[in-house]
Write a structure and sequence with these properties.
16% helix, 39% strand, Tumour Suppressor Smad4, 4-stranded parallel β-sheet, 16 strands, 2 domains, alpha+beta, Rossmann fold, 12-stranded antiparallel β-sheet, globular, single chain
Length: 275
């Protein structure tokens, strides 16, 4: 097996735990290669994303639609996408006790002016796409779902998240937690100036159109951990991408258990030790 190593922080590659894991993999006849961009994926069987969830998001852009699976090695802070320790990952790879799961992405099409350099624009997101005000003025956001218009959101911004992204920015914006295999999209306003708006869950077959009302000269568009500026009269079309990301999942992985250990879901002294 040829394993690609992807990290945004080279210092992590010197971690004693990671070095021990990679030594064991090499002794088991695995070949290791550094990967920095899509062109480096030629011949790679699996990409190891070394860091935290932000690194995993960058790795997903590197992989693109190639189909190369990503295994997240957690040397970061939280870890829903990169949830496995070097020790766990090593044992699973050597024993073959892992499987692939599909994570859906969304594609964002922009009609209008992209104020930053548009050459590096990559329209796909694993977690979410978000529009956000750049100045002091509140942002008006018009949304239609499969042609049906919603009431205008007056807010700092609005995001469209996948089920994978339900534990990311969407969670901070008051959105629901969704199991990663749920085929849904979440539409959630960011800091809305309305008392009667709530996040909305729609099927991921929906096509979501977004237009803006802004007094500022630009609106921020973010897709996962990438940001750029667009003209305030631009319109967006958001839909599920035509390809999915292959994420490596170990046999003991449990999303709901991760909620309790990483986000302290249900933390209550009344629960005692019998949880």
């Amino acid at each position: 097996m040829i394993l690609g190593l992807y990290s945004r922080n080279d210092a992590l590659l010197d971690s004693a735990r990671l070095v021990s894991m990679l030594d064991r993999m090499e002794k088991a006849s695995c070949k290791l290669r550094r990967v920095a961009e899509t062109a480096d994926l030629q011949g790679i069987d699996m990409l190891l994303s070394i860091g935290g969830d932000g690194t995993f998001l960058s790795a997903s852009k590197c992989v693109g639609g190639s189909g190369v699976p990503i295994l997240g090695i957690n040397l970061g802070r939280l870890g829903f996408l990169s949830e496995y320790s070097p020790e766990e990952a090593c044992e699973a790879l050597l024993s073959g006790k892992y499987e692939l799961e599909e994570r859906r992405l969304v594609k964002t099409s922009v009609e209008g002016t992209i104020l930053d350099d548009a050459k590096g624009f990559w329209p796909y997101s694993l977690n979410e796409v978000c529009v956000h005000r750049t100045g002091a003025a509140i942002l008006g956001i018009e949304v239609s779902i499969d042609g049906a218009r919603l009431p205008v959101y007056w807010a700092d911004g609005l995001l469209v998240a996948t089920s994978s992204g339900s534990t990311a920015y969407s969670l901070s914006a008051g959105g629901p937690i969704c199991s990663p295999d749920s085929r849904v999209l979440i539409v959630a306003p960011v800091a809305p100036h309305n008392l009667n708006v709530r996040p909305l869950v729609v099927p991921d077959s929906a096509r979501i159109s977004i237009s803006l009302r802004s007094r500022d000269s630009a609106v921020q568009l973010s897709m996962d951990n990438r940001e750029l500026l667009i003209a305030p009269d631009a319109t967006l079309e958001v839909e599920v991408a035509q390809f999915s990301l292959n994420r490596v999942r170990l046999g003991r992985s449990n999303f709901f258990k991760a909620l309790t250990t990483k986000l302290f879901w249900g933390e209550d002294i009344r629960n005692g030790e019998d949880r």
